[in-house]
Amino acid sequence: MASTLSCSAADLLPLLGPAANASAAAEFICGRFEAVSNKFVDTGFALDTTYLLFSTYLVFAMQLGFAMLCAGSVRAKNTMNIMLTNVLDAAAGGFFYYTFGFAFAFGSPSNGFIGQHFFGLSKFPSPSFDYSYFLFQWAFAIAAAGITSGSIAERTQFIAYLVYSSFLTGLVYPIVSHWFWSSNGWASPGRSENLLFGSGVIDFAGSGVVHLVGGVAGLCGALIEGPRIGRFDDSGRAVTMRGHSGTLVVLGTFLLWFGWYGFNPGSFVNILKSYNGSGSYYGQWSAVGRTAVTTTLAGCTAALTTLFGRRLLVGHWNVTDVCNGLLGGFAAITGGCSVVDPWAAVVCGFVAAWVLIGCNKLAEKLHYDDPLEAAQLHGGCGSWGIIFTGLFAKKAYVEEVYPGHPGRPYGLFMGGGGRLLAANTVQILVIVAWVSVTMGTLFLILHKLQLLRITPEEETEGMDLTSHGGHAYTLADVLDAQKQAAAAAV
């Protein structure tokens, strides 16, 4: 926020002449001027807060998108279960992010590893943070948990969802966000000194912080649980297990697309900021618009590339593949959306589509089962997005979005050298290591305590019937009753 305009009675007095009441008039005028100036400052804060809250609501709407996408991607007998887990990702995440998570992420002043203040939002609001900023960051935290829930769908005990979601949003994710987004984080581009490789990691809206974290956590859980019953036949060949509703998949995809306009552009946090001095048509509002454009182009390009790429590979047009490709493009552009040109976003989306296709092929060969392709989509495409930023970040945009360090490194392909790419590569390595150790250990403990995977009988019957008191759809209940009646008649 710009500083207030100043008015000095001493400076104004000579302009008023030798009148007897000149001093009083000067003080009165400056007092009125200061009042008007303060009103403009208040309006600026209100405008930025409104922008941030609106972005938060868009990001939160992505939870509905995740719920619909997950529901459509699983079989009908597990619909109630996956919907409930998505609700609890938000609810449990809200409590634990309020209690611990935000403090670990942004509790400043702190060391480079973990935050140390604002537990339970104590001493809020402060000159650094207001409540709206907490809410925005909470919406990001539960997005990471929602990614993980898709990877372990259709075979995970309900108690395991509660435990991992609380642990991820309360500890694992906040520490990662502290490293790369807090001004005190050891790899943050917002540090005042000692930047990693003279650059810090540029991960604007979270290709690594959100998507790679969620993808790696899901990968750990799915690997420890193993594939669903029937996913691979006796000879090891993959058996297609389609979700029960393409309609819900498409609905969820469009809701996520809509929410991404809060996820990426909203990460500017404020909008009322000029880059070239007041009165210019160009400012942070322009960067916000550019970010929305790069987000759109990356997703659209990835969707089209997936459409024709899968048509060449399998011989038909598949709506689920296209939806996943679209989301893969969004996950990839999230890290560099604010610092690249629109043409570069097209490159990002094109490569992201092939990364997703390649990761899915590799998953089949390794007998890895992920009902929503979450680890491949968010982990694989998120990793590409981090590398992409190190290659295509534009100098002018980097200096606008991350001011304060003239000569900061930018994209390798844009003439900025390899230091940003090196920093971003470090980000991939440390996230994979940190999440694998923490979440992998948690899932192993749950597995040893027999709290992770449901029994084969429960998996065959479906979790809606065995754990939630009935099916999500009335027709399924009717068919089940008919089966039971037929069995009793025999």
Automatic annotation (TrEMBL):
Q: Which GO terms describe its biological process?
A: ammonium homeostasis; ammonium transmembrane transport
Q: Which residues form a coiled coil?
A: none
What membrane topology term does the record carry?
A: Multi-pass membrane protein
Write out the entry's keywords from A to Z.
Ammonia transport, Membrane, Transmembrane, Transmembrane helix, Transport
Q: What is its main location?
A: membrane
Q: Which domain of life is it from?
A: Eukaryota
Entry's localization field: Cell membrane; Membrane
From the record, give the transmembrane residue ranges. 50-74, 95-119, 131-152, 159-181, 201-224, 245-263, 426-446
Q: Name one GO molecular function term.
A: ammonium channel activity
Q: According to the UniProt entry, where is the signal peptide?
A: none
**Boundaries of every Ammonium transporter AmtB-like domain copy:** 52-473
Q: Name one GO cellular component term.
A: plasma membrane
InterPro entries, A to Z: Ammonium/urea_transptr, Ammonium_transpt, Ammonium_transpt_CS, NH4_transpt_AmtB-like_dom
In which family does this protein belong, per the annotation? Belongs to the ammonia transporter channel (TC 1.A.11.2) family.
Q: Protein name, please?
A: Ammonium transporter
Q: Which organism is it from?
A: Manihot esculenta
Q: What is the lineage of its organism?
A: Eukaryota, Viridiplantae, Streptophyta, Embryophyta, Tracheophyta
